[in-house]
Amino acid sequence: MVSAVLSMYAGAKTVVRTVYGNSSSFEVKVGMHQGSALSPLSFVIVMEAISREFSCLTLGALVC
Questions:
Q1: Rounded Cα–Cα distance for residues 11 and 60 (Å)
Q2: 9-54, pLDDT tens digit by residue?
Q3: Burial class of residue 22 (count of CB atoms within 10 Å of its CB; 0-12, 13-18, 19+)
Q4: Predicted confidence (pLDDT) per residue in 3-14, tens digit
Q5: 25-39: buried (b, 16+ CB within 10 Å) or exposed (e) per residue?
Q6: CA–CA separation, 56 vs 54, rounded Å?
Q7: Which residues contact 25 (CB under 8 A, 6 or more apart)?
Q8: Which residues touch 21 (CB under 8 Å, ≥6 apart)?
């Protein structure tokens, strides 16, 4: 599954639209496609990991 997601983003390019026209295209190296269905899922996964790490730091190793 990870390789499928990575292949969606491999070689992704974009342009910046301004009142003067579009910029030259450039490769997107970080982030997600705008409107991607994976955005909410990835947010939940990251927040869950942060929450667990924070719980371990504040409550001690007994709950980890």
A1: 43
A2: 888 899 999 999 999 999 988 877 777 777 888 888 888 988 888 8
A3: exposed
A4: 877 787 888 899
A5: eeeeeeebeeeeeee
A6: 5
A7: 13, 14, 15
A8: none
